[in-house]
Amino acid sequence: ANAVAAQLSAAHVVALRWYTTHTYKSINGPLRNKDRVRPHPFAATLTFIKEGSGRLCAVDVAGPPLRLYRGMRNACAPTDLMRNGGPKLAPLSFTTELKVAAGYASSRASLLFVVNADASFMQRGASLHWLSTAPFEEEAPFPPGTLLNPPGRPPKTQLATDQPRPPCEAP
Question: Taking the mean position of all CA atoms in its chain, how far away is CA 108?
Fold first, then answer.
């Protein structure tokens, strides 16, 4: 129903489903490579992901506020991002399932983002449950170019075990 309301083409659906597989690394990797000088190897696919997720976000606002989670392993919150915010060039996947995000974050240096999203399409990821290769993940990616605006709190530097953790700086 949302695919029709969002006026998704077959190309949008294929690109979004492809993104839910392990090949998401082929999309995100080049966008995160700051030294890349060549065009993105999947530029057309990236365009359909951006358009499709943006269209789905715009029509997927008829629900209650959501709490979204993103878990990252062996990572820390860059101080500059936490202080000033900034755009993320790659699609940014979140989930409504805390257990899924915690699984992705499971490591010695875990990072968990939490987004309290209201009904605004600008604050909600597009639900891909209906086309995902892993529907239990309840993936809700934000389109490439999403601006992260933190609430102004500095990143925590303690693990749940209260063992000291070295401060984190963006590479």
Answer: 21
pTM: 0.77
CB 75 within 8 A of CB 111: yes
- Can you say whether the dihedral through the CA atoms of 170, 124, 43, 128 is positive or negative? positive
* pLDDT value for 120: 59
Residue linked to tokens 């659906």: 13
CB 136 within 8 A of CB 100: yes
**CA dihedral of 54, 17, 134, 129, whole degrees rounded to 10:** 40
Structure tokens at 147: 């601006």
Burial track 20-44 (b if 16+ CB lie within 10 A, e otherwise): beeebebbbebbeeeeeeeebebee
Does residue 154 carry a pLDDT above 90? no
**Pair 74, 131: CB distance under 8 Å:** no
Q: How many angstroms from the chain centroid is the CA of residue 139? A: 9
Contact 55, 6 (CB under 8 A): yes
Q: Which helix (H) or strand (E) holds 27?
A: helix 24-32
Which among 49, 52, 66 has a CA at the least distance from the CA of 120?
66
